[in-house]
User: Fold this.
Amino acid sequence: MLRDDHFLRREYGRTLIPVMFSVLAGTINTLIDSAFVAQRIGNDALAAVNMCGPLYQLICTFGSLLAGGASILSSGEAGRDDMESSRRYYHTALLLGLAVGALATAAGLFFCAPISLLLSQGGALSGYVYDYSLATFAGLIPVVIAYLPLYYLQLEGKGKEIMIMMGIVIGTDVVLDWVFLYLFDFGMAGAAAASVLSMAASCVYGFLALQEEHSAYRLDGRLLGFKGTWEILKYGSPAAVGNLMDAVRLFLLNSLILLTLGTKGAAVWAVLNSLSELSLCISSGVPQAAGPMIAVFHSVKENSGIRILMKLQLRTGMALTGLFTLALLVLHGSIQALFALPEPVFLPLFWLGLSLFPELLCSVWSSLFNSTDRILLSNLLVGLKRFFFPLAAALVLAACGGPFWLFLPLGGVLAVCCCAAVTAAVSRKSGKGGHCLSRFILLDDYLEREGLVLDFSIAPSEQNICDASDQIREFCIRNHMDQKGTNRIAMAIEEMLMVMKEENPEMKSVDLRAFALETVTGIRIRCAGDRYDPFERAKQQEDLRYLGVNMLRSMAGEISYSYTLGMNTLYLEFPRQLQDGRKKE
Assistant:
């Protein structure tokens, strides 16, 4: 038996669509506002919404910094079965979000006029930019903290609740945009108010969903504090750096395009940027759906699961990106009409579509490094892809008079090539030591090479469960465990899997991992379905079916159960006995 992708494919697929929609939280409102503003006010107002893009991205930087960092840390702690620390990171991020949001709101309202002049470069669009910015600053707090329920509902495996949050964002924004622009004629301020009010409504629902009975992240005033702030900022830095680089890049590109292509080019760029932001549901959503699972697996050195998730991300992401690009090209006429553009946009959309493929690769890479404690490498990749190479390509093409929109795919391709070279160099350098890293994804396969771990998957039939028991028995013998203890462990695991199969009919596939370290041998069992802790159930019911469960309880040195990301995880650790019966010291 080998580790297959059946279990993870199911769990990843169940999470992917809700997470893709959750990524739209920071982008869908701008796209909706752009369409309403273009139709109601005109192309100048459309360009002004795009000029406010850096401001909105800067606000989202705070949210993604706190929620992204906290969720990765919470995932790792959950993987180590330390739910108290996992919850503490959530509460720290919430308190930080409220504090930062309040301070940023006050500063933004006070400095709104000079900020608007800076964004519009003091041009004719300053009035539009000021109105939009003022309303955005007024509703900044819910925009910042809305990321927390989105990320933590994912950790809870609550995909339906995430979809409802996004339904609230989209539906409320569309309705309020129509009311504020057409019914009351509030202009740019009305469009911005529609965005922040829809985010506030979604945020309220998200936090209420986290208050349900079995939620691990219910609000607990005792855990509120600033403990762990530095770790949250560290692990959230790649997402924050990405948003910050996007904001600076967008500001500089707005200036360059306005200077090079005029207001018509700026309007086209506003549409391309809005569609590029919309595509983030793929390029960011695909890795974000896998990121917490990778963090869980990395915390227990489960490299086989990480590799499966990398393949799933690339297969799924490439297919979705291809479909999105095809849709852009087929609907180019409709896009031109929706945004009231005076010129065809097929060629700019073609270059945009090509750029999405290297964008996906860079996002998957960056998310992997962020989840596996390679923060510096993740930040480097984000900076190259989001800032340095796109700007360099745009400047060169503007200077030499080449096809300007070619800078979109060219910057991504250069970033991919650079990252491939860096990871190859790191891998070669690590080969000089005993723990050489795999190429490109930089995983340490020492345990696998030494035969100290056994990863495999089974469909939970009676025959497969018996075969799994035999595999665990053989693994223990190969690692010099004593025969009597080995047989008892294998038999007890077999009986426990039988009980789990009977009690959890949704369990279609089980991932098992056995490992033998210096002083302990352990087994980790993962399966999908409803919450089910056989050890807790055995305490509540005196039943012969739980004989194997109770036997494992008496043999194990440590037992734990957790339900994270919609997965039941059982962990059992046994003192390691040598074949001569001596306990390993």
Remarks:
- The two ends are 32 Å apart (CA to CA).
